[in-house]
């Protein structure tokens, strides 16, 4: 049996420059705490190895303090006979002048730090229980598909692949650079029992196979939402694999959209309305409020739009709500808000705007016009079938009346 923990994309010492200093320190400390939780769990769960699929830290940002922290953490594993298998990524490349290669790691740490394919036997009680096959990033911009060079499985012993790689069809690939790109088929064709991947920060199973991104250890921005951690993986002697997600990070990021604020007239009402919405959100997800970094995206029409263009007013609102709900951090985005318009007046009066909106609203009901449109060709699309073309036309006019109102009506006077 081979039991191990799979983590990746820890990015120790991330600066979080856009956050205030207090939060920045908290984020840095909580990331180290999360990493310590990984080490504790390795010991408690009596795993044989810790597999790190790259981007453990950012080469240029790693502090001396964190370097010592890492060495101490790995030494604790060594004292418990646990090996570390660490494949470098694009942020912690392993060429000779980079930190990953220069640090004097304890001898239980095995580094896959360049483009040479390495196969390693994992031994337990003098028996070979598994093989690890891996390749690392030597430079910051490894653009080759090195997975192609890895050998296919040719043994009864369980084989685990370890790499910081970009599976081009995985979800959440946007925002990740295409370093060490490969396809799911490249990975599947090796017939390994498990693939421990890093690079994409969103935990996921790839192509319904035994191929996993564990995601990053702690979210780094409002888009990296939800629980963050790693996988505890057990492969038995017959090659059966059990994969369990374990949350290691206490801190969570999340984004909440709030709209329908047309009837709100003053600050108190606005504040209370938002608090109720956040409370419902907290209850639905069983969040620990004081570990939550929340971004609120305000949408729709709001009488108080003008105030919310003023930094000081937004800060006041953030501060009051944060204190009331005991949130770790709250950020309010009001840039999408629209001014409140008296839509009845705009739509019912006899003027150019009301007539224009009438025209737009009537397109859908004007069968003669729709029939004519269905007969002529589409500008830059090819759609077969009347239904598909009808759907396209209706999508084109959908919401145009709102667009006209926004464009033609200013602030309510
Ligand atoms: Mn990466």
Automatic annotation (TrEMBL):
InterPro entries: Calcineurin-like_PHP, DNA_Repair-Maintenance_Comp, Metallo-depent_PP-like, Mre11_N. The keyword Protein biosynthesis does not apply. Coiled coil: none annotated. Keywords: Exonuclease, Hydrolase, Nuclease. GO terms for molecular function: exonuclease activity. Pfam families: Metallophos. Residues 2-202 form the Calcineurin-like phosphoesterase domain. The keyword Ubl conjugation does not apply. This is DNA repair exonuclease. It comes from Alkaliphilus pronyensis.
């Amino acid at each position: 049996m081979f039991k191990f923990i799979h983590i990746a994309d820890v990015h120790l010492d991330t600066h979080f420059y856009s956050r205030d200093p207090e939060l920045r320190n908290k984020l840095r400390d909580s990331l180290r705490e999360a990493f310590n939780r990984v080490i504790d769990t390795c010991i408690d769960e009596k795993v044989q190895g810790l597999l790190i699929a790259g981007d453990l830290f950012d080469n240029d940002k790693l502090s001396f303090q964190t370097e010592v922290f890492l060495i101490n953490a790995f030494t604790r594993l060594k004292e418990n006979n646990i090996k570390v298998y660490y494949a470098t990524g694009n942020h912690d490349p392993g060429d000779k002048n980079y930190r990953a290669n220069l640090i004097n790691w304890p001898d239980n740490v095995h580094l896959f730090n360049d483009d040479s394919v390495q196969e390693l036997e994992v031994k337990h009680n003098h028996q070979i229980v598994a093989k690890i096959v891996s390749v690392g990033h030597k430079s910051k911009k490894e653009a080759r598909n090195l997975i192609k060079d890895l050998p296919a499985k040719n043994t009864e012993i369980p084989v685990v692949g370890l790499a910081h790689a970009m599976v081009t069809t995985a979800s959440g690939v946007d925002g990740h650079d295409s370093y060490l790109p490969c396809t799911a088929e490249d990975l599947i064709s090796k017939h390994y029992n498990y693939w421990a991947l890093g690079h994409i920060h969103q935990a996921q199973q790839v192509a319904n196979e035994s191929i996993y991104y564990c995601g990053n250890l702690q979210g780094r921005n409002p888009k990296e939402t939800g629980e963050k951690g790693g996988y505890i993986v057990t492969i038995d002697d017959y090659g059966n694999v059990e994969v369990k997600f374990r949350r290691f990070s206490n801190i969570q990021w999340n984004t909440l959209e709030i709209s329908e604020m047309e009837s709100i007239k003053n600050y108190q009402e606005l504040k209370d309305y938002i608090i109720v919405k956040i409370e419902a959100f907290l209850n639905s997800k069983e969040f620990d409020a004081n570990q939550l970094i929340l971004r609120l995206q305000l949408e729709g029409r709001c009488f108080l739009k003008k105030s919310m263009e003023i930094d000081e007013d937004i800060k006041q609102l953030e501060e009051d709500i944060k204190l009331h709900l005991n949130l770790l951090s709250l950020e309010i985005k009001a840039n999408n808000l629209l001014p409140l318009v008296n839509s009845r007046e705009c739509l019912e009066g006899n003027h150019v705007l009301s007539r224009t909106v009438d025209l737009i609203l009537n397109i859908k009901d004007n069968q003669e016009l729709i029939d004519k449109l269905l007969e002529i060709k589409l500008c830059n699309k090819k759609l077969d079938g009347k239904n598909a073309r009808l759907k396209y036309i209706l999508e084109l006019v959908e919401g145009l009346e709102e667009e006209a109102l926004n464009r033609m009506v200013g602030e309510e006077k």
